[in-house]
Amino acid sequence: MARHPSRPSWHELIGLHEDRDLEYKSARGGLPGSLWETYSAMANTDGGTILLGVEDDGRVSGLTDAMEMRQRFWDTVNNRGKVSTNLLSDPHVTDHDVEGRTVLAIRVPRAGRWERPVYVGQNPLNGTYRRNFDGDYRCSQQEVGRMLADRSEEPADSMILDGFGLDDLDDASVQQYRQRFSARTPDHPWLNEGVVGFLAKLGGWRTERRADREGLTVAGMLMFGKVDAIRAIEAIPEYHVDYRECLSDDPAVRWTDRLTVDGTWQTNLFQFYQRVIQRLSADLKRPFQLDEGLFRLGQTVVHEAIREALVNGLIHADYRGEGGVVVEKYRDRFEVSNPGTLLVSFDQLLRGGVSECRNKALQTMFLMIGAAEKAGSGIDKIRRGWQSQHWRLPSIQEQFQPARVRLVMPMVSLMPDGTLADLRRRFGAKFGKLSEDEVQAVVTAAVEGQVSNERMREVTNKHPADLTRVLHALVQKGFLTQDGQRRWATYRLRGGHVRGMARSADSAADSIHKGTDSIHKADSIHKRSWDSSQMLEDMDAQTLARLRQTAALAQAHRRLSPQETRNTIVKLCSGIYLTAFHLSELMNRSPVSLRSRFLRPLVQEGLLRLRYPDRPNRPDQAYTAVQPRSEDRNDAC
Q: Which of 48, 55, 157, 540 has the fewest CB atoms within 10 Å, counting from its CB?
């Protein structure tokens, strides 16, 4: 796989944008066999483009017979013995004249939930691939299993749990839910049903007539179950929910409040929702009171956005995945993450109006008490709430290994006055000559630590091709530096973070938190966590020189063996804490790839230690090498 460090000028001529993944293949010996692994990987990730007739270094070598190559491609992609699914039609495969040579472009779309996994050969368990920064990787059986589960016609939460019944439900949860339901729609006919009938209407109890059986569903258990029953090996043993609140300025205080599965309360989804939604909005300015059904009277759009974020995480989670649902509240942001992948593409998510819900019965349950919106409108409501405050729009991040979706909702101005002042001091008069989009990109890099084509699309809704030009122009003008290539490209402020960044974040919060819907008091906004780690430019010259010498081989060669990469990371982290972004800059690698492929395994193996072991997913997490004990060194001698 190759991603050339400079973007060839002909890319734009054939419509290649930075938000899309790209793979070069020379195809000098005919249609390359590795093409199908890349086809599978792109389809199962977020799509991309394969260019035939281009060398690894981006040099155009061309195809001798593009027509024959095209025909062979179509013959093979339609061969079910070779590839499980053909996602393409004629417009997806085009030839282009580049520098007098012919290049074949194959545009692979992201497969829908009903089409995944797209695999090579006859067996999905050993022929399914996904993409990361370093190329195509073979999916584990667990990853394939989750894709197969997502494509099922039967929603994930509709399965009957054999051996479980009403005794496994928390009676108080069922009763409280009915009270909220009744308070919202007191004349609803479902309220005339008994417990089983009421649950059946909601999707919490199901009858399979063909199999002549009935019983409690996964949704019924998740929403109303006793926690021991929920986590039974025959039910949902991976179930975990966690609310973490960090509002203290004291770094020694881990959490100012926490709710998790600790055996002190029935931690089903209904009880978790009731407790967490009140904590998330506890210090929102409230023009009205809660009624007897715990409904918010006269809710603002910010209240609604927070509620939508919480419910979205609960109804879209893959409860058999890793990590559980985690909700975090900070002074300057909310974060909601859940196991599973996005069931629609990033483009569909930004456009809105399209929804694929993993747990449809749970969605109905929250909808019937006014805690969820109709399909496809939740993300729009979240964005409207944040736009009403002129805050930076929420970002949606998808990761694999393990599969998780993370929503970050920053309560910081799009254009913080303090940040603008600091940037003007740093860059002088040339900062005032930037376009509106260029200023937004530089400010985003300063406030959030980095910016990307995808993030700028969330902030501006501009076309990705236009944003690619904006970001590359800022690199040429000396405002940003680029890490990674293509879909994995990120940009950081040249020269490191802005001095006084914490003050600018505070200043922005001060001005915003005075409004009608303002969240939190402005006098105690803390320093943004992703600006708190020391940048390379701040290190002493001797340390930085040692690090660069250690990383020289990785910096010069993109294709080190995994073991060489591991050894380099451990050497770099010897006697010092380094973040993934430090290592990314030193080694010329993607920070995302470093975390998933190397840093996490090295921590698990005891070769690296976390600076913040209680919060492994902190944006500024840092790593240091574990020094061997003296007796181990003696044994080695």
A: 540
